[in-house]
Amino acid sequence: MKRSEPTIVTMGPGDEDRILEVCELLVRSFRDLSPTWVPTVEAARAKVVGALEPGMLSRVLLIDGRVVGWVGARHDYGSVWELHPLVVDEGMRGRGYGRALVNDVERLAAGNGALTMLLGTSDEVGRTTLTGQDLFLDVISALRDLKPTGAHPLGFWQRVGYTVVGVIPDAEGPGKPTILLAKRTERGA
Q1: What is the per-residue pLDDT across 41-72, written as a single tens digit (0 to 9) for each?
Q2: Which residues does 25 contact at the CB level (< 8 Å), separation at least 6?
Q3: Which of 22, 36, 132, 147 has the most Cβ atoms closer than 10 angstroms to its Cβ?
Q4: Predicted confidence (pLDDT) at residue 151 exceeds the cutoff of 80
Q5: What are phi and psi of 70, to 5 degrees?
Q6: CB-based contacts of 78, cutoff 8 Å, min separation 6
Q7: CB under 8 Å to 70, separation ≥6 — which residues?
Q8: Is residue 74 predicted with pLDDT exceeding 80?
């Protein structure tokens, strides 16, 4: 059976089947990387429903009618929009679907006035050189030496054009930072 071409569509509050698929995808995908963020389908549902409020961008990538990825974005302040979250089914990674979702939501955000996209990627489980440090002692040196030490989304974000612009020490608990990345949109270029 031939697989259909992937399509990216808007997900709204009435898309109950897709919402459930996204919730299950979030729980599976973040279990190891960010275990406290969405530990259950119920916790994921609260995040998904919040991302479907007016003014939010919520897009799903479908293959054969099945959700294999989701991206969201919202206006943060001024000309800054926050990209959050991004998830692609583990079995579908490495095929350009994450990049396609990012490009899609960036285009939509730019059409709504975004000049800069901002995002945070946490390190709760020790997959970058920032984990376990007291970053308040010398945050600049720590950022200068930042590298992944395991499977972490940092490399993906850099490959799709995002630049590390900061870090929030202890964001997810002592020694568990959130790395901030940003990118100029095409509209802002």
Answers
A1: 999 999 999 999 999 999 999 999 999 999 99
A2: 67, 68, 69, 70, 87, 89
A3: 22
A4: yes
A5: -150, 140
A6: none
A7: 11, 22, 25, 26, 58, 59, 60, 61, 85, 86, 87, 101
A8: yes
